[in-house]
Amino acid sequence: MHSKRQLLTDTALQLFYQRGIHAIGINEILAQAGVAKKTLYHHFDSKEALLLATLEQRHEVFTGWLQQQLSDTQAQTNIRQLFNALQRWFNNKEAQLGEFNGCFFINTSAEFSDPDSVIGQRCRAHKQRVKQLIRAHCGPQQQADTVYFLMEGAIVAAHTGGQRQAARHCLTLLQSQLAG
After folding, report:
1. Residue 180's pLDDT is what?
2. Exposure of 164 by Cβ count < 10 A (0-12 exposed, 13-18 middle, 19+ buried)?
3. Stated pTM of the model
4. pLDDT (0 to 100) of residue 161
5. Which residues of the chain carry a pLDDT beneath 50?
6. What does the chain look like in DSSP terms, one character per residue?
7. Could you read off the pLDDT of 50-76 as tens digits, one per residue?
8. From CA 116, how far away is CA 148, in angstroms rounded?
């Protein structure tokens, strides 16, 4: 990727993730990145195109991170590793994901009311991919779906409710369910 394009994408992702898409204007991204408006429009024809690039970048980072957490051959180990990693992320101890500010895809979809828009579709595709990865590595489908829904709920609880121990609670719940 061209270095100015990458700089713009990195800067926009950081600002969008920290403060929201609608709260950030193009001029703020340009000032933070130290590039001219002409450079921005050379690489992106609109703020939406820049947002789509940030969604793609975050998707790649997050799914790569998720695959690392689900690398064991045993479903129970993967589940434990996943929720322990989520717990670290919620408490800003997963450098690969950066400072925790909820799920970028949930946050983005909350700002765009049309689920059929390109942005809505991209957010939905990300969630589908996450669900596929969980299903492939966390046991039978019903168990994997439970893991997926608990993971999503833990992310929301940690972000919107400030419950930074949510992943630990989910893991305890899952372990008691699997033992019983």
Report:
1. 66
2. middle
3. 0.94
4. 95
5. none
6. --HHHHHHHHHHHHHHHHH-STT--HHHHHHHHT--HHHHHHH-SSHHHHHHHHHHHHHHHHHHHHHHHT-SSSHHHHHHHHHHHHHHHHTT--GGG-S--S-HHHHHHHH---TTSHHHHHHHHHHHHHHHHHHHHSSSHHHHHHHHHHHHHHHHHHHHS--TTHHHHHHHHHHHHHH-
7. 999 999 999 999 999 999 999 999 999
8. 23
- Cα–Cα distance list, 123 to 24, 56, 111, 130, 176 (Å): 19, 10, 11, 11, 32
Residues 6 or more apart whose Cβ sits within 8 Å of residue 166? 86, 90, 153, 154, 155, 157, 158
* pLDDT score recorded for residue 2: 67
Structure tokens at 34: 């130290």
Tokens of 20: 């929201």
